[in-house]
Amino acid sequence: MRYKHNIILIGFMGSGKTSIGKRLSLKLKWEFIDTDDFIEKREGMTINEIFAQRGESYFRDLERELCSRYSEPKCKIIATGGGVIKNRDNVKDLKKGGIIFYLKSTPETIAHNLRNDDTRPLLRGGNKLERIRTLMEEREPMYRECADITINVADLNMEETLNLIEKEYNRYENKRNKRTKH
Ligand code: S3P
């Protein structure tokens, strides 16, 4: 049996990758993987603890190692960490096996979603909205460049988001299969 391409969710922290990925996984009955969750379980530490005790580059190495395992189409839904696009090898691997969806949001929506959240080391201290704005400005061109499909999640409710991802996925998957047959 030929597996379909994975659905890869990228985007800024707090844009909904995990919650959307979990819901999609229930809808499509595909396995769901959250890379941060996987890393936390493997290390027996939270992301905050990993950053504080081992440093960001240690975390990036773990993230890199994990992405290299998902370069084949296997009907999986993968929610990545917001910084996964910083390493182009991650994107290359994930793209080989999947279709990359950029869940695009706004700094205001993200600040609202993360108003009570203290689990993102890169957003700790200072004015959260300002940090989000600055980091998003830096990251936005990378997300855009890596994405196969962009979904403006700030304008959609959960159901609309899931339906749109499914529709765009089917369209893209058909196109990709046609291309590989010729
Ligand atoms: C990060 C995003 C986080 C997590 C880590 C670094 C980033 O994941 O991987 O805190 O660099 O944007 P989420 O996008 O799931 O919050």
Fold topology:
Elements: E1 6-10, H1 17-28, E2 31-34, H2 35-43, H3 47-53, H4 56-67, E3 76-79, H5 88-97, E4 98-104, H6 107-113, H7 128-146, E5 149-152, H8 158-181
Bound molecules: shikimate-3-phosphate.
Oligomer, anyone? single chain
The percentage of residues in β strands lies in: 5-15%
One letter per element, helices H and strands E, the order comes to: EHEHHHEHEHHEH
Low-confidence segments, ≥5 residues, pLDDT <50? none
- Taking all Cα atoms into account, the compactness measure Rg is 16 Å
Describe it.
The chain has 182 residues and is of the alpha/beta class. The protein contains 8 helices and 5 strands; from the N terminus they run E-H-E-H-H-H-E-H-E-H-H-E-H. The protein has helices spanning 17-28, 35-43, 47-53, 56-67, 88-97, 107-113, 128-146, 158-181; strands at residues 6-10, 31-34, 76-79, 98-104, 149-152. A 5-stranded parallel sheet has the order 2-3-1-4-5, sandwiched between helices. Helix 6 (107-113) crosses helix 7. The radius of gyration is 16 Å and the shape is globular. The mean pLDDT is 96. The structure holds shikimate-3-phosphate. Shikimate-3-phosphate (S3P) is lined by residues 13, 17, 36, 47, 81-83, 120-122.
